[in-house]
Amino acid sequence: MSDLLTLSAEARERAGKGASRAIRRQGRVPAVIYGNNEAPQGIHVEERELVKLLNTGHFMNSVIMINGTRTLPKDVQFHPVTDRPLHVDFLRIGEHSTVHVNVPVRFANEDASPGLKRGGVLNVVRHELELICDAAEIPDEIVIDLVGYDVGESIHISAVTLPKGAKSAITDRDFTIATVVAPSGLKSAEGDNETPAAENGAEG
Fold first, then answer.
1. Which has the closest alpha carbon to 89: 105, 66, 68?
2. In the list 25, 35, 147, 157, which could disulfide-bond 92, CB 3.0-4.6 Å?
3. Which uninterrupted H or E stretch holds 52?
4. 84: how many CB neighbours lie within 10 A of its CB?
5. Within 10 A of 68 (CB to CB), how many other CB atoms are there?
6. Measuring CA to CA, how many Å separate 145 from each of 50, 110, 138, 156?
7. pLDDT average, residue stretch 122-136
């Protein structure tokens, strides 16, 4: 389960672009806390402290305690050039609120996949799964076992064991998470070389 992270904040008195720029010059990042039938609250947080949490790799699926308020990060805006955080949206939640989170996928036992052992490539379609779960039970990651998967076989959500209490937010189809595809040399030999750029971009 993801750790409970903490972030200290100060109230933001003024809104608007000018006020936000002034806050950023002080090494702080404007943010807002909203939801739970309460009025939105403008705040600002220390940039260094925020970046430290962003670098944990599971910021977006962790509960963040801000001055005693339980929140879930919903959106982070970054500067297109410097990649510095510009603004953060936090959603107020209860201790056992039902939340939507994007949880990263990790693949295990690649050496036990016949397709990968023969030179196949794991083509990952979804690097994250959108789950619905209890805010107190958000998983850090979903581990998918590759044992037995051969070239041409796909891993669908129905084959994944989700943690107790968690379910997929997408329920109308058995979507694909990853596929074991033939190596590019084998594809070329079969004449299937029309979209190499798309295939290379999708490999992961």
1. 66
2. 35
3. helix 47-54
4. 12
5. 6
6. 33, 8, 20, 12
7. 94
